[in-house]
Amino acid sequence: MKRALLLAVVFLAACASTNAPVDTDAGLTAHRRAFADNARAGNAAGVAAGYADDAILMPPNAPAMRGRAAIQQFWGGFLSLGKIDVILTPEKFVASGDVATEAGKYDLTITPKSGAPIHDVGKYSATFRKIGSQWLMEIDIFNSDLPAPPSK
Length: 152
Prior knowledge:
This protein is α+β, with helices and mostly antiparallel strands and 152 residues long.
């Protein structure tokens, strides 16, 4: 009986150490901070560095971007629209081992070089994989909560 209890305790401790939610949460928090900081700085290479080499980005109203180079090109175009201010607010995350998915909302303001600021709010979902000591996005999708502008 004592041996069975000891094995159960060892098994539970092993499970707890292989799925470290505190480490995952800290890693995803650091990722969100780096994403927002690089976006504010207009640094497309810095934003793209948070994606895995074979990641997929699925922006609204556009085809999926596959691979870090295509993702960097997308963000380069996006960031060239003007000064970016983005707030990412996670609402839920699920993690198992070296994979985690986060869902949340964003608040985005683009201030063009000329013209009025553009404001958007929406939601996102991102799947991450821990590669080495870094959490990198594998799949990233986001879309607006605002209605589409009327077509002309």
